[in-house]
Structures are given as C-alpha cells and as structure tokens.
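Record 1 of the preview.
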Amino acid sequence: MPHVVTLLAGQRLFPSLHPGVLLGACAGAGVSSAALAALEEAAGSKVPALGYNVPYAVGNTLLTLAGPLLVALIP
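->
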C-alpha cells in the first residue's frame, strides 16, 4: 500500500518526473535491490537506478534505528 500511495503522489506532485525514476525510488524505499534489478531489466535501461540511492540509504537507516526502538517500547 505505501508504494501505491507513493506512485500516485509522485505522479500528481511531480508530473514531469520519469516513471522509471519514481519506480526506482519505490524500490529503494523498500530496500530491495532485487526489485531494482527487475525494474532495470523490464525497462531495458538504468533509469530506475537514478531514483534508488537516496531512498535506499534512508530506508536502511530507519530500519537500523527502528529495531532497537521497537524492542525498547515493547514491555
């Protein structure tokens, strides 16, 4: 569901953004390099990699910080 919302919001807020870049950002936010490889293969291009890097870094950081936080909050 989050990726669907991201795609819809991205299309409306950034209409000039290439759909491949937006899909790459979704793959990065999901921290899925396999999804990036599938997107690049389907597109026949490296365009999805342009949107992958920053969401991937943010996603990994949030995953690293959320684990101990959730453990600390669960009694």
